[in-house]
């Protein structure tokens, strides 16, 4: 069985198992309101995961996403509270800010040839520091922290039982899926992640693909920041703390390889939903929140070990590419 299919089937079965277990443990879990809330929480992580999937497929990583989201949310909140600018303009500026922050990450990675982890570790602290600096110099925030814009408030609400952030998430999933599977951009993204040197030799712009992946992730962070500010009708300096961990966990569980070259939006969607179900379930059955990072870390480790095990298992099978290559030698 194909490794991607095996991982997805495993994730789907685990998702169904978790829903069944938590539903038995607490009758409030499998209710319309709770499932709606789970979808909403999944969507904030999922929106960013749509962008980060591109980065990870190229063989990169972006741990600055939580700070990028926070800075975008803070700027969006302040623009709405103090400038009187039209809502459409504020939303556009915030989204473009996210895109620009991601673009900076991509530029530093490709032009200065610094590892993705080091660059985004630095910008994670820079962007978080800027968020806190803006808040610290904003004396009015202490007196009047709330956004008073009825139209903006609608973005944080819902239509019937479906929150608008959920709609935004699924729209972005569809857009990302189309880009990955039905465009030359997606083909080049996989090529860069599979073999960067070979991709360069065929004329693919390695730098261009990497910069796009980071910029698209930044744009996704901007959208998530807007939706977070709309939900809270304010912004705090601690928005998005630890978000990068949830995003990476969701993507890896969905079958995206941290080595690059493999992954898709279907897997990211499944992984995002699975993480949201686990987060909600462990809280409802009374497991201390202190153990949540332990559980998430264990899930990531299990997913990576599964990937390694399956790769080694496949190589040992008769007719595998590795065996054929060895025989030819």
Describe the structure in brief:
The chain has 329 residues and is an all-alpha fold. 76% of the residues lie in helices and 1% in strands.
Task: Describe the model.
Pfam families: BPD_transp_2. InterPro entries: ABC_transp_permease (IPR001851). Keywords: Cell membrane, Membrane, Transmembrane, Transmembrane helix. Helix content is 76%, strand content 1%. It is globular. The chain starts with a helix and ends with a helix. The protein has 15 helices and 2 strands. The chain has helices spanning 3-25, 32-57, 65-82, 87-111, 116-137, 140-143, 150-155, 164-182, 184-194, 196-201, 206-232, 243-253, 265-284, 292-316, 321-328; strands spanning 158-159, 162-163. A two-stranded antiparallel sheet has the order 1-2. It is mainly α and 329 residues long. The model is unreliable at 322-329 (pLDDT under 50). The protein has one domain (3-315): ABC transporter involved in vitamin B12 uptake, BtuC, CATH 1.10.3470. Helix 3 (65-82) packs antiparallel against helix 4 and helix 9 (184-194) crosses helix 11 (206-232).
Structural class: mainly alpha
Q: What's the Cα radius of gyration? A: 21 Å
Low-confidence runs of at least 5 consecutive residues: 322-329
Look at the structure and give the CATH class.
Answer: Mainly Alpha
First-to-last CA distance: 26 Å
Largest sheet: 2 strands, antiparallel
Shape: globular
β-strand amount: under 5%
Strand order of the largest sheet: 1-2
CATH architecture field: Orthogonal Bundle
Keywords: Cell membrane, Membrane, Transmembrane, Transmembrane helix
InterPro entries: ABC_transp_permease
Transmembrane segments: 12-30, 42-75, 87-108, 161-180, 201-227, 239-258, 265-287, 293-313
Main location: membrane
């Amino acid at each position: 069985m194909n490794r991607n299919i095996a991982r997805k089937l495993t994730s789907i079965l685990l998702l169904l198992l978790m829903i069944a277990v938590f539903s038995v443990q607490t009758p409030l879990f499998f209710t319309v309101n709770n499932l709606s809330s789970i979808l909403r929480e999944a969507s904030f992580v999922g929106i960013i995961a749509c962008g980060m999937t591109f980065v990870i497929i190229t063989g990169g990583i972006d741990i600055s996403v939580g700070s990028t989201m926070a800075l975008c949310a803070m700027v969006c909140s302040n623009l709405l509270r103090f400038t009187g600018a039209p809502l459409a303009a504020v939303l556009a500026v915030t989204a473009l800010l996210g895109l620009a922050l991601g673009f900076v990450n991509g530029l530093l990675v490709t032009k200065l040839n610094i590892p993705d982890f080091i660059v985004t570790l630095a910008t994670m602290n820079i962007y978080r520091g800027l968020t806190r600096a803006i808040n610290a110099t904003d004396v009015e925030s202490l007196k009047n922290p709330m956004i008073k814009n009825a139209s903006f408030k609608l973005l944080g609400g819902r239509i019937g039982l479906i929150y608008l952030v959920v709609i935004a998430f699924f729209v972005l999933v569809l857009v990302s899926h189309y880009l990955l599977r039905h465009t030359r951009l997606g083909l080049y993204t996989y090529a860069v992640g599979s073999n960067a040197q070979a991709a360069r030799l065929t004329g693919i712009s390695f730098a261009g693909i990497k910069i796009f992946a980071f910029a698209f992730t930044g744009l996704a962070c901007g959208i998530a920041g807007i939706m977070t500010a709309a939900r809270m009708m304010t912004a705090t300096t601690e928005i998005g703390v630890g978000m990068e961990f949830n995003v990476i966990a969701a993507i890896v569980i969905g079958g995206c390889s941290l080595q690059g070259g493999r992954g898709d939006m279907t897997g990211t969607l499944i992984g995002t939903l699975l993480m949201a179900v686990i987060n909600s379930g462990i809280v409802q059955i009374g497991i201390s929140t202190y153990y949540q990072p332990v559980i998430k870390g264990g899930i990531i480790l299990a997913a990576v070990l599964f990937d390694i095990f399956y790769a080694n298992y496949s190589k040992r099978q008769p007719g595998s590419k590795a065996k054929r290559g060895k025989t030819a030698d």
